[in-house]
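Quick question: who can interpret this fold?

. . .
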Amino acid sequence: MGSPLLTCRAALLGMAILAGAPAGAEQPPRSPAAQDARAAVAALERQRAAAFQRRDIAALRSLMDRQYYHVESRGRARSKTELLTALEHDGLRVRNYEIESSEIQLLGDGGTALVTGTFRTLMEGPPPKPFRGRFARLWVRQPDGWKNTFHQATEIRPAQDSCECN
């Protein structure tokens, strides 16, 4: 497997290339094929959220591409194996994972989907800490179905009353 940083760069470059594909190569946003693709990805997103909350390693493994790349809210990057191992051994202390909102954008010819949205969870610990974040996930249609290839989360922090920005 290549360097995780190179994998991330390749995924982001691929997104940029696909987003800039000629208009003729894109599926009309309301075409039956585009609606079917969005519905399929939305169902997979629900499966992913449920599997993540249950810590269902087998289900998550089947949803992820073998080159999956995961960037956590504080910048830590993990491969598919690293993430699944952390979940399996309770290295991620996340509970009650819930998607609040999401939007699915098909890129290029409709074989790539960018899903963005917000989520909330409860981080275990003394005391448990509510956590709210934004996410971006990339799904790619492959011969054996849609696979999640990339995930990045960013914490949404409450606005501060004052800023020491100057």
About this structure: The CA atoms of residues 106 and 113 lie 4 Å apart. Residues 32-155 form a domain with the Nuclear Transport Factor 2; Chain: A, fold (CATH 3.10.450.50). Residues 1-26 have pLDDT under 50 and may be disordered.
